[in-house]
Amino acid sequence: MLWNACVRDAGERIGFLVRIVNDGDTAAELSVRLSWFHASSGFSPCPAPWGDGARVVVPAGATVATDSGCAADKEPVNFQTRANVVRPGRTWGYRAMSPGAHVHSDGSVEFS
């Protein structure tokens, strides 16, 4: 099981999600919790259920990207996604940060 936090340019907004690769032979049930970082105001949880921990089933051999509905309006600042992915019933431990999405004043986005 591989996963990574992602941030994307979604037109007028910046989207926050996680991409999960199940390279195993059976489906995997996971709990996914997402929040996002705004360089001026810090971390904010994504709306429920993602901010609290949503269940996601990833079929065997499949790749899934969450469509979390978690997004922020574009403004000239750096954004990142913070993601936790665990098996159901486990404590939230390791977390990952996405690369940065730096929004320029013209609305263009540079990923770093």
Question: Which helices and strands occur, and which strands form pairs?
Answer:
Blueprint: E1 2-10, E2 13-21, E3 28-38, E4 42-45, E5 54-58, E6 63-65, E7 71-73, E8 78-86, E9 95-97, E10 101-103, E11 109-111
Antiparallel strand pairs: 1-2, 2-6, 2-7, 3-4, 3-5, 3-8, 8-9, 8-10, 10-11
Walkthrough of the structure:
The chain is an all-beta fold. The protein has a single domain (2-90, 98-111), classed as Immunoglobulin-like. The chain is built from no helices and eleven strands. The strands form two sheets. Strands 3, 4, 5, 8, 9, 10 and 11 form a seven-stranded antiparallel β-sheet that branches. Strands 1, 2, 6 and 7 form a four-stranded antiparallel β-sheet that branches. Strand 8 (78-86) and strand 9 (95-97) form a beta hairpin. The chain is elongated, with a radius of gyration of 14 Å. It starts with a strand and ends with a strand. The model has no long low-confidence stretch (mean pLDDT 95).
Strand count, sense and closure of the main sheet? 7 strands, antiparallel
Helical run tally? 0
Mean pLDDT: 95
Structural class: mainly beta
- CATH topology name: Immunoglobulin-like
Number of structural domains: 1
Q: Which CATH C-level class is it?
A: Mainly Beta
Portion in strands: over 45%
Query: Which blocks of ≥5 consecutive residues have pLDDT under 50?
Result: none
What's the architecture, going by CATH? Sandwich
What is the helix content? Answer: under 10%
Compute the number of strand runs: 11
What's the helix-strand series? Answer: EEEEEEEEEEE
Task: Estimate the global geometry from the Cα principal axes.
Answer: elongated
Distance between the termini: 25 Å
Cα-atom Rg, whole angstroms? 14 Å
